[in-house]
Structures are given as structure tokens and as C-alpha cells.
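User: I'm designing a mutation panel for Ring-cleaving dioxygenase and want to avoid disrupting the core. Could you give me a predicted structure to guide residue selection? Please restate the sequence first so the numbering is unambiguous.

Assistant: Good idea. Sequence first, for numbering, then the predicted C-alpha cells:
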Amino acid sequence: MSITTTGLHHVTAIAGDPQRNADFYVRTLGLRLVKTTVNFDDPGTYHLYYGDESGKPGSLLTFFPRPDAPAGRHGTGQATTTSFSVPAESIGWWKDHLAQAGAITGRIVNREGEDIVSFRDPDGLQLALVAHPQGDPRDPWDNGHVPPEHAIRGLHSVTLSVTEEEATANMFADLGLRFTSQDSNRLRFSAGDGGPGAMVDVLVTPNTPRGLVSVGTVHHVAWRAPDEQTQLSWRGELVDRGVEVTSVLDRRYFRSIYFREPGGTLLEAATEQPGFAIDEPLLELGRALKLPPWLEPDREQIEHTLPKLDLPTENNPELV
């Protein structure tokens, strides 16, 4: 198969209150809200994108905030942990910083030669900060709140929980990922050259109940497709393999196709272009509600439906 993704594009999760979500990810984690828009399939719901300065693929964690939705349940058939990459000397700083912010953290552990501290966001989403021993060359976003020498560099990896490994492992091989290591019931697969932003761990837990996707859980995991032509080729190959794949969907900032891996997790292949500066300048990313052209006629109704959201000033420090 010719599908060869180079790594993660983004992870999308479900949040509760959008204001609490923005405050935590901008102020506590020091990420940038690079786009304030809506769920194109449900325009009464925000879609908030957090990442580095410009929202490059591989830096993004996004949310559908649904204040009235029930809490989800972590379990098999979903991505259960989203991990960010931080400098090796920063794990201790982050543990103290998160504790001061009121987040409950786990003890620092070492796995695969990487120091890891786990924690949860205000909605219970399972997160981790990971220090890769070879470092991470990606530039951090400097908003003046988290020192750049400690700041998040982007996504590190995601962990999928499954009841059995073979079919999921075969799917990742079809996506061009290679098996690189195993630690007990945890298998690691890497895309491209591997390293932070290009890894997925598969946690095999046969006796764990099925998860429920709602507030505090991951909705889907997106992998990078270089361009639309390649994405179409990938779609054709997946269909030939008997995988149920959506048509190509216009997400304004990228094009998407969706399908499930055999363990149940919803996956996406998303193009790297056109990016988030297509409808607002870099300095102003995230400041205003942006709608795709086909939803602009409904702007007044959409704005009336959405809950109030005050963007933290740290998101656009040069404009304060």
C-alpha cells in the first residue's frame, strides 16, 4: 500500500464549558487558540483549535465544547491519552506548574527512555507531558505565560485502547506506520522518521469496558496527508481494502476523510493545507468567530446560539 503518513495532524476531543476550556489551554498549558469557529456538522457548537503560533499540523488539539452533554467514559475503542512534547529538563517545572494551577498529576515515570507526567484537564480528559531523550526541534509558542524554555512543542503521541491488537496493528501498517517497540501490553507504532508528533501507542486491555465518547474524551485522531491528490489516492486504497470511508469533506483549513480502525477509534486523514491564516492574519488568529462561506448567511443565528467566550489576552500578546 502506498499510504505513508508522516505523523499526527491533530486530535479532537469533547469539552464542557468553552470558557473553562480556553482558560486552561491558553493560560495553564500555554497553547495558542489559533481558530475560533464552529463544528461544521453542528454549527451551534464551537470548534476551538489550540496549537503553536500558526497552528501547524502536529501541534493541534481541538475541541467541540458541549456544556449540556454528559461526561464520557474512558475505555476501549477510543484514544484514551493525548500526550504533548516538552523539553527534557522541564518535566519537574510542569509538575509544579500544574499543581499550582489545581491540576492533579501523577508521579513522574520513565517509559521507553522518556520521562512522563500524566494529568487531566478540567473536564477529565487524560493528558500527558513527555520529554523525548533526543529532544524536539519544533519551536514553542511564546505567550508570556509559560516560559518558552519549558513550553509545549506540539503533540508527542496518542494512546489507543483496544481489546485485541492484531487488527489495529494491521490497520496502522496499512497507514504506513511501523511497529517500533513493546512494553508489556503497550505497543508503539511510528510514522515517517518517528519521534515526537509521529507516534501512536496501542494499549491492549481485553477486560476493560467499552468507552463512551462524550465530555472529557477524544472524538477522533487525525493523521497528516500532504495534499488533496494524495488524500484521494489514500481514500481509494482504503475503500479497496474494504474500509468504510467518508467522502472528502471541506473543513476550510484542511480537507478530511474519516474511517474507523478495527478497535473502534475514529481516525481522520487531514491535508496540511491551506492552514489557519486563510481567513485572518497570523497576529489575530483566534480572536474572532470565523465561519465558512456556506454558514455566513446564518451568522446572526449562530452567534446568538453559541455561549459567550472571552478570549484570554495571552492569545494575542502583540495586540494587547
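For picking mutation sites, this is relevant: The chain has one domain: 8-319. Residues 8-319 form a domain with the 2,3-Dihydroxybiphenyl 1,2-Dioxygenase; domain 1 fold (CATH 3.10.180.10).
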